[in-house]
Amino acid sequence: MFSTKYYDFDRNNEIAEAKLLEEAVLYRLTSLTHNTPECILNGRGPVATRKRGRFHGPDQLTTYCTNNVLTGICEMLFHMYRALLDQIGSEGDYRLIRREMYTTKCLVVFRVRAIDGLVHLDSEGVERDYQTKVAGTLAVWPDATYGLFDRLNCDFRNHRLNGVMYPSARHSLDKCFALFGDLSEKLLVTDPSQFHRIQIRLQLVPEDHPMHQPPREFSPFKFKVHPSRGYYQVLDVPAFSALVSLGWINPNPMPLAGTVSFLRQPYRSYPSEAVTAVPAP
């Protein structure tokens, strides 16, 4: 069951040390082909793509996950939008450009054994210990790669840390995690009912998209893509609903389909102000 008590860090953002306690629930949006217990924490995603990321180089084992499903969805939608812009800007193939506008991912819901040796990025301790000014605004730098993060990534790994706990640049609540190395041994699965895979469809939307309706298909050459909103739809409804009833999903309640903003903003009522529910098609 999800509980904030399993994520141990200084809520006053002073101390840098952080850890995941035994039975912490994590969420990872990944491909439909690499989502088994054997590969969910092995960190080989960045190695397979040979691309740099927020806290990894092309050859560094790293697993990215969150403790909030909407955070992961917002992060993925933003990266879809940036990939679409890159394809259009490079005059890529029209079929590839259309493909960047929607995707189906696997939401993996799992628990971990205790993982210590994490660093809380958005803390005064990081500024002091690593001689940087990353806390605050820079901690939510929007691009996936940034020179300061490259340097910190090297420093954290040189200090033999197990990963980074950091705020999402795309969603204001809860945390993201970059876990270093192959941490497959930290996966907590005592029986098959503790490892869950849910298919979710993600789609970019046009600027005039009505937030309470499912998105239509459109051409990004005829209509402007919305730069900060997207749509998701849970495809495995019975399995997801069962996890909600068991308390495995954060936030709870969470609509089965909805329009979300992938811009950070304050919420007076959560998650109702973070996602506009949409009747599933």
Task: Describe it.
It is built from six helices and 13 strands. It starts with 6 loop residues before the first strand and ends with a strand. The protein has two domains: about 5-70 and about 110-190, no CATH class; about 95-105 and about 195-275, no CATH class. The model has no long low-confidence stretch (mean pLDDT about 95). Helix content is about 20%, strand content about 30%.
Distance between the termini: 29 Å
Radius of gyration: 18 Å
Quaternary state reads: single chain
Order of helices and strands: EEEHEHHEEHHEEEEEHEE
Helix share, percent: 10-25%
Task: Give the low-confidence spans.
Answer: none
Give the helix tally.
6
Total of domains: 2
Quantity of strands, as a count: 13
Outline: globular
* Helix and strand composition category: alpha+beta
Summarize model confidence as the mean pLDDT. 93
Strand content: 25-35%
Q: Main beta sheet: strand number and arrangement?
A: 7 strands, antiparallel
